[in-house]
Design goal:
By secondary structure, this protein is of the alpha+beta class. It is 24% helix and 37% strand.
């Protein structure tokens, strides 16, 4: 086991804490910082990740050179596929990827991913992979689309055992990241199906075709293929 687990009782954000520690001193590759209570977790585009203390997995992984040569979007593909396939293979949970960085099961949000890079003189020095997974939480106030592994399976899980299981799976997948990347589109939410989207104040129906090499969502809108980035369109589901 080459990954190193570092547990802290509480922090504003595991991503921010791990970035700070990396800048202050050298940390081993695959240092994984996790916490019982993430006070101000972050999501995509400044959104907040709300997690009940002592009930869920909130952790961040440090990668320095293991993903060299991959684009930012290829790293996103690798991480999201790895999370989904761990849920499917180890916990028998039928999870899917909701572009760009959410993990769903039974049409509800089970987890989220936030990947941030540290640059030095325009070169990527390290990647911080933040992962939040709803594990034993059973009440989600004002979050009607959230769900937890406990709600899906009907049992309570050991957070420490799940984290070790995931990190073992993750480390194994790092040996051949391209294999995971190639399976990305097959695991996309609503692939090949019509669904509703919102753009500014307008809603529209489109068929999900996939994602292009730049990470933009490919949709078939009124018979024409169009691409959208994460700032342009949101899901209605």
């Amino acid at each position: 086991m080459s990954f190193q687990l570092v547990k802290i009782h509480a922090t504003e954000s595991t991503n921010d804490e791990l970035k700070s520690r990396f800048r202050e001193s050298e940390l081993p590759q695959l240092t994984t910082l996790h916490t019982d209570h993430q006070i101000a977790g972050k999501g995509q585009m400044g959104a907040k990740w709300v997690s009940e203390p002592f009930k869920n997995l909130t952790f961040s992984i440090l990668i320095t050179d293991l993903l060299q040569g991959l684009t930012d979007f290829e790293i996103n593909k690798f991480v999201t596929v790895t999370v989904v396939e761990w849920l499917r293979q180890k916990l028998q949970i039928q999870a899917v990827i909701k572009w760009p960085n959410d993990i769903l099961s039974v049409n509800h949000k089970l987890g989220g991913i936030l990947i941030e890079n540290i640059y030095q003189q325009s070169e990527r020095q390290a990647t911080i992979i933040g992962i939040g997974l709803n594990i034993n939480q059973t009440e989600f106030i004002d979050l009607p689309k959230a769900i937890s592994i406990s709600q899906i399976t009907g049992k309570t899980w050991s957070l420490d055992e799940l984290l070790i299981s995931f990190m073992t799976f993750f480390e194994n997948r790092l040996t051949r990241p391209q294999d995971s990347i190639e399976r990305y589109e097959s695991l996309l939410f609503k692939l090949g199906r019509k669904t509703q989207f919102k753009m500014e104040a307008q809603t529209f129906e489109a068929t999900v075709l996939g994602v292009d090499t730049d990470g933009k969502l490919r949709l078939l809108v009124e018979g024409k293929e169009q691409t959208f980035d994460l700032k342009e369109v949101s899901w209605i589901y």
